[in-house]
Amino acid sequence: MEQIVSDLTDVEDEINRRHNEKMARRRAARERMLAAKTEERGLLIVHTGKGKGKSTAAFGMVLRCLGHGMRVGIVQFVKGVWTTGERVALERFGDLVTCRAMGEGFTWDTQDRARDIAAAHKAWEAAKAMIADPSYRLVLLDELNIVLRYDYLPRDEVVATLTAKPDDLHIVVTGRNARPELVEAADLVTEMTLVKHPFRSGVKAQIGIEF
Fold first, then answer.
1. Is residue 2 part of a domain?
2. Cα separation of 91 and 79, whole Å?
3. By residue range, what is the domain housing residue 89?
4. What's the pTM?
5. Per-residue confidence (pLDDT) for residue 2, from 0 to 100
6. Residue 191 in 3-state DSSP?
């Protein structure tokens, strides 16, 4: 019995030794990779796809920036003035964050294309002002992809403005169906994939989860 225990201990020791060697090689490779990454600049980030979580992930970045004392600007292109948990929470950060909900709701709600276009242009003017303001370190353009999809804004102008942003400014764009031009111009693109959603089972939007 003692021999069996000893043999098992030797096997476990060998497994641990090989594991430690493997992790040491991985750590060394990662350190070499990180040492080569020396550029620091603002990023153009796009969250798109049919899955839930695009705006949620973006607001996570907002919270992270606020935690570092960085000033953040937010323009919501579709969401209207109805109360959302994120806006209530962000009010506690005072002057560090500016959140402007400038949407009229989804186009099937307004039933008025001219009104939607006017709202999109007004929101875009607010977005451009934030982008040009050097006090902001991150600007979130929530659901901008949706108004671009419906051609409510000139795509060439939007992409040109986003790519010409100040070097130290991060911009995050959310919404499904991101235009190929924007995807090409972005530094980081994440596509949220829908696997399963409770809405399809008859569950309505939940406080704290959807808004």
1. no
2. 17
3. 44-201
4. 0.84
5. 65
6. strand
